[in-house]
Amino acid sequence: MRSGFVALVGAGPGHVDYLTLAGLKALQKAEVILYDALLSAEFRQLFPKRAKAIYVGKRCGRHALAQHQINALIVAHAEKGKFVVRLKGGDPFIFGRGAEEVAALREADIEYRVIPGVSALNGIAASFALPLTLRTGGNEFRAIQGHQLPDDPQWWQDLARYKGTVAIFMGLEKLQSTLEKLLAHGRDPASPLALIESADDGSSHAFPTTIQTILALGYQRVGHGPVIVYLGENVRFMDTKAQTFHNLFQEAPHVLSAHFH
Fold first, then answer.
1. Model pTM?
2. Average pLDDT of 97-116?
3. Which domains does the chain have, with CATH numbers?
4. Is 58 among the residues known to form the active site?
5. Choosing from 17, 36, 88, 91, which is the catalytic residue?
């Protein structure tokens, strides 16, 4: 039996317009597609009719399949000689499980390629003209995950004093305790921050505020999508009325889908 091939494709932060040309080319060849949650419905228009589409999404602790089951599915279809696309939200190697899937493919001696995607890190920020780096402001950034932060006081002190932009993924559940620790280690309560929440249709909602305001009033979610918290002076530059990228090219999915059907 011929050997299969797996493309781990970063789909970008939700909307189909963020998919790269390399990702489109991989989808065009796909015989099996294992796709994530957090992707807008328009992605299905790009799936070839011949391809078997399998949903393996994870949302807020609700997993269609455990990661080891996803790994096994990818390997099983590739071992049948199929061209498999693992379509992942954002970038496969930025707060994703891409490395675990690659490890499974290496163990099974299956050829693969990782196709990078626009990460939510910069894609969501760009939707509201929020620069991660700014020559006249915070000229560096850190990206951390917010649900398993260390207890080390020195780590918190360094984060509290950090002058660049901090992007906190998966940080909403523990946001209050995170901000309280930052204040306890010297962060200014008036420090600007923004919460950007993504919706199922690929759109985003931005809420610029300050640490002290969030601690006093909290945050009322718009929906059930993921929220990234951006902290730092560069937040002052953002534009909450900016035209989101996907709205500029609303016809793109319909035009591109003609290449696949």
1. 0.86
2. 96
3. 5-119+248-257 (3.40.1010.10), 129-237 (3.30.950.10)
4. yes
5. 36
